[in-house]
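request received
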Amino acid sequence: EAGVAQSPRYKIIEKRQSVAFWCNPISGHATLYWYQQILGQGPKLLIQFQNNGVVDDSQLPKDRFSAERLKGVDSTLKIQPAKLEDSAVYLCASSFRDRGFAGELFFGEGSRLTVL
Amino acid sequence: TQLLEQSPQFLSIQEGENLTVYCNSSSVFSSLQWYRQEPGEGPVLLVTVVTGGEVKKLKRLTFQFGDARKDSSLHITAAQPGDTGLYLCAGVNTNAGKSTFGDGTTLTVKP
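response:
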């Protein structure tokens, strides 16, 4: 079974530039999460999708971050414009459980963003 | 906001030693998960504990969930270099269907 796929693995940009990350979850997983992991910290939830609908985006800085999951499968996370403090690893995770039980989260390898 | 505190933040030991790391919260969770993360990779689930007082064993790893379902511990017996990594606990909110992570314990086991 293929795991969660993310790209790119690494990205270096200047502040105020834009960047997009892509995630393809495990086939059949209805729930998709984007987490931000700053060096030395645990993952922090940015947004949670159930199929193609947003369940929770309360921690997403909506003035600069956006995310979509148009067909309920793969997802894109965009940052525009980027700030220095956005330097982090962006982890995508998926779960086969329906809303109501988190179950096991399957993570991708992450996309490491460096903002200069 | 539900917060999870993990301790110690860093732990460096010699191969063969035993260790315990802790995960504490002021909130009650439906269940608690432990993940292990290696450099350059995403976290991988080790165990989920659900019932207060529950103890689960996974080879040399023993996981305990507190009676009040607010705290947990992970004990490793005879640590090996392959145990090196970041150990994360995550509190599960069943109603919301999401997990809240602590900041982890970075474990280094020296040969």
